[in-house]
């Protein structure tokens, strides 16, 4: 009952290419600057165990739901939801789910490009040796001065977005697939090099590993469980249309559940390996562990600056961060580009320039939030950047993910869903139970706790 056998935009050449692309979409800044810290602070191995359980019960069922909807529709998320809803005799209101995903991805890309631009800049700042022997005050002032320079921030944002647009404009085969084919293996290679560097030069590798993996049940609170649930959802790029768009290009014979599981494992492996790089370096220099931009752009440059070969390996680290950012950003452009090609008969190049250009322009508001608009509060005490971040990550993504699971589990034509998953009746019933009840309820809890706590 699939609506089309092949997408007009092209197809992944193999299941492996889809895994690399979807893993590239999932692996991003959150794997590097958030997961290792929250794992270490919330029980180490105990948190990781709960997180893996949440991946199994929440992440994989929702990812499988998003992939199967995408492959059934074989179009952009917007048109896929229109077609699959109609084929399932569903309420037309479900069609809005495609628009919600595309809007979430577009909003995230607008400020993601700004932060990714910072990472590109730090490749050169680290390589120049400016952080060699630097103290905490220098590292903090260097970051503050950089983001306070509107010309520099916008310039690096523009460079990153131009690269994203160029790749997306080349299409599924020549652009998206070729990029992830080389960047994802390169990302893992660089990550392994950095793990070895941390192991042999920091003198604190076991301490860092202990912080990340020691099984401290007493440190795992209910809040920690909620963090694990939220991380399991957000880390896989769910609810933003990217996985649905990529699913439309997945070959018919590829196992959806097996592929979703592999992607989740790859994403988790990157997060854990990142922690094995970060914390030995942080502890070796007596620095405080932290999460977010402060960890990546202040603490780590300071740590690299105190170590032998730090300028080189600091540059390698920010190359890795840039690779992770670019593989995520191209997936965020894809839903809107695909829709313009389908609905407006636009060329892929024109669609990429238009969508990417508007995302760049919207991103200027986030770029300005750290300098000339720093005192401008759009809502309450929230800057433009804060509003974009909060709206997408705290509202659009969880609502989108929850609705995707509910649509696939309750509304989508049952025969269509069975044909796409192509698993035994027992496994199908298990997925359906998780998609209908467990996953949406868990995401709802995270949504309520995040918005109303």
Task: Show the helix and strand layout.
Blueprint: H1 15-26, H2 29-33, H3 35-41, H4 45-73, H5 77-87, H6 96-127, H7 136-148, H8 150-169, H9 171-201, H10 205-213, H11 222-234, H12 242-247, H13 256-284, H14 293-305, H15 310-343, H16 348-368, H17 384-411, H18 414-421, H19 425-452
Helix pairs in contact: 1-9, 1-13, 1-15, 4-5, 4-11, 4-13, 4-17, 4-18, 4-19, 5-6, 6-8, 6-14, 6-15, 6-16, 6-17, 7-14, 8-9, 8-15, 8-16, 9-13, 9-15, 10-13, 11-19, 13-14, 14-15, 15-16, 16-17, 17-19
What does this structure look like?
- The chain is mainly alpha-helical and 453 residues long.
- Helices cover 77% and strands 0% of the residues.
- The chain has a single domain (15-452), classed as Hydantoin permease.
- The protein has helices at 15-26, 29-33, 35-41, 45-73, 77-87, 96-127, 136-148, 150-169, 171-201, 205-213, 222-234, 242-247, 256-284, 293-305, 310-343, 348-368, 384-411, 414-421, 425-452.
- It is globular.
- The model has no long low-confidence stretch (mean pLDDT 94).
The proportion of strand residues reads under 5%
**H/I helix tally:** 19
Low-confidence stretches: none
| The top level CATH class name | Mainly Alpha
Structural domain tally:
1
Shape annotation: globular
| Rg over alpha carbons | 21 Å
The end-to-end distance, rounded to whole angstroms, is: 44 Å
Tally of strands: 0
H and E order: HHHHHHHHHHHHHHHHHHH
Structural class: mainly alpha
Major sheet: none
Summed over residues and divided by their number, the pLDDT gives a mean of: 94
Architecture per CATH nomenclature, i.e. the level-2 architecture: Orthogonal Bundle
Which fold does the CATH topology refer to? Hydantoin permease
Q: Give the proportion of residues in helices.
A: over 70%
